[in-house]
Design goal:
The structure is a homodimer of 210-residue chains. The first copy, chain A, is α+β, with helices and mostly antiparallel strands and 210 residues long. The first copy, chain A, folds into two domains: 78 residues, 3-Layer(aba) Sandwich (Glutaredoxin); 112 residues, Glutathione S-transferase Yfyf (Class Pi), Chain A, domain 2, CATH 1.20.1050. Helices cover 54% and strands 8% of the residues of chain A. The first copy, chain A, has a four-stranded mixed β-sheet, with helices on one face. In chain A, helix 1 packs across helix 7, helix 4 runs antiparallel to helix 6 and helix 7 crosses helix 8. At the A-B interface, strand 4, helix 3, helix 4, helix 5 and helix 6 of A face strand 4, helix 3, helix 4, helix 5 and helix 6 of B.
């Protein structure tokens, strides 16, 4: 199994965490998003969006991190990254989607590049844009973690919500977003990141890191 | 069961289609996003992001359309909106996530309002922004539908990918995006929309439509 990835891809980091929590061995092929390597025709033939992450396994290519997380959960059920009950699964998936739909897509490299190139945004405007979407999402997530968390985002075991949260907190810190209003969220992220297998998935530990 | 919705919410429209395909009866409470009604404290207490859609059922509130679609699929398994095999489920979920993560969040009302208010974007720039993200996503989706579709986005039955596609095509048409490069995608959307139960979920047929 091959994971197509880039060390600073937040969506790739989600998949690395899930594979680490399950102990799933895999090779890693990297694409430097800063040079546009992910738009190489050979890669686009595999992954039509030309984005990372993607998984090559069993003769097929899977894209989109949320879909990949569900596939990992189905393929290697233990330890479970979704709760046993339908309501719990819905809450965990909503936390993951809050990050994957309403925060991350607004702040990724190609969107920030478009703000600068097509809308003439200066760095303070880009910073405010980033902080706005992270702040809106994290405020809601802090409430959801207060309701449903018990050490992790949902309950007392890591779930796909934590797989999405850790990379988003990493990204927020990179962008110097003030996280003081989200103490539960930060604590959950730190607790997940402290798991030994997870710590090895940190961007700075990847072979393609600067 | 209550669906919190707004007639022009693309994410709400996804949920309406899934409920219609399953024949699930529900009440509908509407929130006018143009007046910010979704930020009413009573609603935010239920749905901390203050966004639609949300489902109230069994004493809980579920948010985020992708999570709600999965919950609907688990709660009313027939007719199935996910394929029976793991690889098929992964492909369908990747198509849904492509729309829900990489197209729709960039073009929703609060993001377009922010482009105008905070970045001073003029209408031609906003139109180009919208067309860019729809174009990038639809080009990849057209390829995926060519590979995996057979009448619908995946195979010969509607799935959650179609639940996401129909509202995105509706939105693209509203924004006057040229869809001539995506004939398969448009045909799939029209075929889904022609299903009698689905046709009733069209935005213009909702009680809160202008």
């Amino acid at each position: 199994m091959i994971l197509h990835d880039y060390w600073r891809s937040g969506a790739g980091y989600r998949v690395r965490i899930a594979l680490a929590l399950k102990g799933v061995a895999h090779d890693r092929v990297t694409h430097d998003l800063r040079t546009g390597a992910q738009r190489d025709p050979a890669y686009v033939a595999l992954a039509p969006q030309g984005l990372v992450p993607a998984i090559e396994a069993d003769g097929m290519t899977l894209t989109q991190s949320l879909a990949i997380l569900e596939w990992i959960e189905e393929s290697w059920p233990k330890p479970a990254l979704l709760p046993a009950d339908a309501a719990g699964r819905a809450i965990v998936r909503s936390m993951a989607a809050l990050i994957a739909c309403d925060i991350h897509p607004l702040n990724n490299l190609r969107v920030l590049n478009t703000l600068r190139a097509d809308l003439g945004a200066e760095q303070p405007q880009v910073d405010a844009w980033i902080a706005r979407w992270i702040g809106d999402g994290f405020a809601a997530l802090e409430t959801l973690i207060a309701r449903h968390g018990a050490g992790f985002a949902y309950g007392d075991k890591p779930t796909i919500a934590d797989c999405c949260l850790v990379p988003q907190v990493y990204s927020a810190k990179r962008f110097a977003v003030d996280l003081s209003a989200y103490p539960r969220l930060v604590a959950v992220s730190e607790r997940t990141q402290a798991i030994e297998a997870v710590s090895a998935t940190h961007p700075s530990s990847q072979s393609d890191a600067d």
